[in-house]
Amino acid sequence: MCFAFAKAIQAQSTTSTDKKWTLQECVQYALDNNISIKQSELDLKAADADKLSALGNLLPSLNAGAGVSENTGLSFNPVTNNAQTTTFLSATGRVNVGYNVFDGFRNFRQLQRAKISKIASEYRLDKMKDDIALAVANNYLQILTNKANLKTFKAQNEITKDQIKQTQELVDAGQLPRGDLLEIKAQDATEQQQIINAQNAVIISRVSLAQLLLIEDYENFDIADEDFEVIDEEVSEKPVTEIISSAEENRSEVRIAEQNLELAKKDLQIAKGAYLPTVSAFFSYDTRYTNNASFDQRIADPNNPTETQIIGTVEGTGQNVVTEVPVLETVLVGAEPFIDQLYQNDGIAYGFQLNVPIFNGFSVRSNVERSQINIERSKYQLEQAKLDLESSVYQAYVDVQGSRQAFDAAKTALESQELAYEYAKERYDVGLTNAFDFGQSKLRYDNAIITLNQAKYDYIFRLKVLELFFGIEPLELKL
């Protein structure tokens, strides 16, 4: 059985006393609803937005604007540029296009950085899912362990109650001393306390898993009583060096550190780009309109368009110098139509702008030095991530070996304690041993069952941890 399952998880509101959550449902529900995972998904969306913004920086900018104003009093007419004391309406419109021709490759590097940042966010999301899935599995197996222990205590207590009845009959018949009956009753009281403690452990572990799944109905939350078997994918039989190598290739911890190093390298390239000149191009178109009338000069009399005026005197002769000048009059002219003014008053501007950095207070140099320091820091972090991963794999590998030995030993111990218990029970039933010795044998048998339960589920969990390190996906883990 693996984590993957086909049917959809019902909403939290459908949780009822009849609902028994399987391990697959718990893991999928956690992956769909866990707050930390949702935050990591938001980080991934933010990385997408950063990538889109970086891509947009490589494209031309296009902006349009318009304005309308009404002026009263003395002001300059935007069309005639004459100072006028009046009230008039004016409108302007413009379109601007800009393009960053060269900026030291910084925008291009920013796009590359945004792509790397998105990959790093994906790895962080994968790691978060791995961690949450493993935490859910651990909590789930803990509930199963506590339930198995509770079942053991109840079953053994039923045997004790039967022994009380049997002992009571033997005491009443004078075949056993009364002390044996008191001894078994004391054992029953101890077992009742153990049952209460086991019930509390089940409740606490259920609440813990419910909180991890963000389910508020603690009282009605429960899991299916599954009996998992130990399924070993033979990963534990592989050399630990092979597991470490696979972990370095597949685990998100190392991948995240590698991407952080790549981000630091891109930051250095971006910082160095500030040393280079920048070239930008622009183009703009604008026009204007006003509804204000203006003064204009025209020929006063078409029949007599000119007149003779003296403009000087010839020195020596005293002869006048004359010329013909037009006879003009000033008239008030109404505003031109709106469409006509848009064409008459429009204009364009275009050009290039070069900016050469010469001295900026060492800001560029300091940014470059900080970026170089961050690269060295990221290299150390990558080395540390590999060392931590290697240490974690070694620890997981040793834990599997140890838990396997503990599980095998627990099975052997249970077989021996079961035989000893059956022998003690037979002897007690025929009066060859006292209640105290029988109780001790039964206690050792109970403890052996509990130890086996804990060893079994601990071994299962340790195996799954090692398989995750080897690169098996959480939803593909078999239990």
Task: Please describe the topology of this protein.
Elements: H1 23-33, H2 35-56, E1 61-76, E2 83-102, H3 106-172, H4 178-212, H5 240-250, H6 252-273, E3 278-290, E4 294-299, E5 306-313, E6 320-326, E7 328-333, H7 338-344, E8 347-355, H8 363-429, H9 435-470
Antiparallel strand pairs: 1-2, 2-3, 3-8, 4-7, 5-6
Helix pairs in contact: 1-3, 2-3, 3-4, 3-6, 3-9, 5-6, 5-8, 5-9, 6-8, 8-9
GO molecular function, one term: efflux transmembrane transporter activity
Subcellular location: Cell outer membrane
Coiled coil: 247-274
Number of helices: 9
Major sheet details:
4 strands, antiparallel
Q: CATH homologous superfamily of the domain at 21-59 and 103-276 and 357-476, by name?
A: Outer membrane efflux proteins (OEP)
Which strand order does the major sheet show?
1-2-3-8
Count every beta strand, where a strand is a DSSP E run of 2 or more residues. Answer: 8
What name does the CATH topology of the domain at 21-59 and 103-276 and 357-476 carry? Answer: Outer membrane efflux proteins (OEP)
Share in β-strands: 15-25%
Average pLDDT: 83
Radius of gyration, taken over Cα atoms and rounded to an integer in Å: 45 Å
Structural class, judged by helices and strands? alpha+beta
H/E element order: HHEEHHHHEEEEEHEHH
CATH class of the domain at 21-59 and 103-276 and 357-476: Mainly Alpha
Distance between the termini: 5 Å
Percent of residues in helices: 55-70%
Shape: elongated
| CATH-level-2 architecture of the domain at 21-59 and 103-276 and 357-476 | Up-down Bundle
Uncertain stretches of 5 or more adjacent residues: 1-17
Organism: Nonlabens tegetincola
Keywords: Cell outer membrane, Coiled coil, Lipoprotein, Membrane, Transmembrane, Transmembrane beta strand, Transport
Pfam family, one: OEP
GO molecular function, one term: efflux transmembrane transporter activity
